[in-house]
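Inverse folding, one chain.
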């Protein structure tokens, strides 16, 4: 009786042990890691004009980025910034593939740091493989314990820094030692720390392969002129081992010596010689290690290189093509618009809210309307104001307080009474303009309506 063998519906995960390599692209990656992590860890500690330089103050609804302060009214700027980020991703992907994934993605950046710590403690690729396969011993125990201790400390520092962008980080540090954090601060600190430890320490390439949507739709942004990491099969095949300096033509082989080092250095575990794959994050580790091997074999570099499909087929390469032209024009237009909007935004704005209890009040042969002015001063200095009306002749204005000063960085409420004599008051509602004028002559206008009795 024959036995039927079941077929697994999924592939069991095999741990990847990326080999450490050096080269011009790996130098650029390390530089990107240093700069990006430096910006992340250092930015919240910087001071600007007596406050934290970068602080997203959600309770106060203010977002400080060095000399700029953004308010909820500036939401359009945030939307514009997100659109710029999306167009930038499309533009650079169309030009040079997954540069963001290989050099700037947070998953890549923190994974590189965690792998570097692992290599320093557990050794090179072969030593790490042997250590994991060996039975538990004192040597294995202390290495694993030390590695995870440093991972956890780095993850906790990362979570603390993340929360420090939303709560003043110097006060946050003191309250951590006093164990007096708020509920949400505890949650986000521990959650972000756990996510960093899990994603960079354990999930690693699985985030790129199975969780990140960008890997799935990236091919829609590629064309035959997009720079991608490519194996030159015409030059490399047929693969085979040989002595150093051997003439591949004489022995009937290509330049590829089938050393597998391009596979060993790949952080996602793919073989670039099988062609372009969605798992490739364009880190170029295979380019650096292959160039090193070619040097040792006394062969020309570039068996694996950044190139385009058209270049591989000996066709002309077009950097300026409809796709990149459209992206570049749109990108420059959005950047220009954003820069203009930031530099020319109004630092003073206000809303006019009518009294909800009554449209108007009649007091001593005068008709009175009550308004609340919600004045937002986005600048760094208090602004004295004068309030006047346009389009409503014969009206008088009284405010509480009488002297109006818009406090810097706050919303100032001013109760304003607009009154007219009963004889000159309009029947029903008429439009008017409430005007705020600064001591420098700048004005801000808001439309509203004044209501009078229909029957006299």
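Residues assigned per position:
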């Amino acid at each position: 009786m024959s036995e039927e063998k079941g077929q697994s519906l999924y592939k069991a995960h095999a741990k990847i042990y990326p080999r450490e390599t050096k080269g011009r692209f790996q130098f650029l990656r390390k530089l990107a890691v240093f700069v990006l992590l430096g910006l992340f860890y250092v930015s919240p500690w910087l001071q600007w004009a007596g406050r934290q330089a970068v602080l997203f103050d959600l309770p106060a609804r203010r977002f400080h980025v060095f000399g700029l302060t953004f308010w909820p009214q500036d939401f359009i700027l945030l939307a514009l910034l997100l659109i710029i980020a999306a167009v930038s991703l499309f533009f650079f992907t169309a030009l040079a593939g997954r540069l963001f994934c290989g050099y700037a993605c947070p998953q890549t950046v923190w994974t590189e740091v965690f792998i570097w710590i692992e290599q320093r403690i557990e050794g090179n690729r072969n030593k790490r493989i042997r250590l994991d396969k060996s039975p538990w011993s004192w040597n294995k125990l202390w290495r694993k314990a030390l590695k995870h201790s440093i991972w956890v400390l780095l993850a906790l520092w990362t979570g603390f820094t993340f929360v420090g962008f939303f709560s003043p980080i110097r006060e946050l540090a003191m309250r951590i030692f006093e164990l007096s954090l708020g509920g949400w601060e505890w949650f986000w600190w521990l959650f972000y720390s756990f996510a960093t430890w899990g994603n960079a320490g354990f999930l690693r390439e699985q985030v790129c392969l199975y969780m990140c949507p960008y890997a799935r739709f990236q091919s829609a942004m590629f064309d035959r002129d997009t720079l991608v990491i490519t194996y030159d099969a015409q030059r490399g095949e047929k693969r085979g081992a040989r002595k150093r300096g051997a003439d591949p033509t004489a022995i009937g082989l290509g330049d590829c010596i089938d050393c597998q080092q391009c596979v060993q250095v790949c952080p996602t575990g793919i073989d670039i010689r099988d062609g372009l794959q969605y798992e490739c994050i364009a880190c170029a580790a295979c380019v650096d290690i292959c160039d090193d091997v070619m040097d040792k074999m006394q062969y020309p570099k570039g068996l694996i290189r950044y190139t385009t499909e058209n270049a591989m087929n000996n066709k002309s390469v077009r950097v300026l093509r409809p796709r990149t032209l459209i992206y570049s024009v749109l990108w420059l237009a959005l950047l220009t618009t954003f820069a203009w909007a930031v530099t020319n935004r109004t630092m003073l704005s206000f809303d006019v809210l009518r009294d909800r209890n009554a449209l108007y009040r009649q007091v001593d042969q005068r008709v009175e309307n009550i308004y609340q002015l919600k004045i937002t001063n986005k600048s760094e200095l208090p602004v004295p104001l004068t309030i006047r009306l346009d389009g409503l002749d014969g009206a008088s204005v009284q405010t509480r307080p009488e002297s109006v000063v818009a406090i810097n960085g706050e919303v100032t409420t001013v109760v304003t009474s607009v009154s007219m004599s009963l004889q000159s008051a309009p029947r029903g509602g008429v439009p008017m303009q409430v005007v705020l004028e600064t001591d420098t002559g700048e004005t801000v206008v808001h439309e509203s309506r004044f209501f009078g009795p229909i029957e006299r």
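Residues 14-345 form one domain. The chain has a mean pLDDT of 91.
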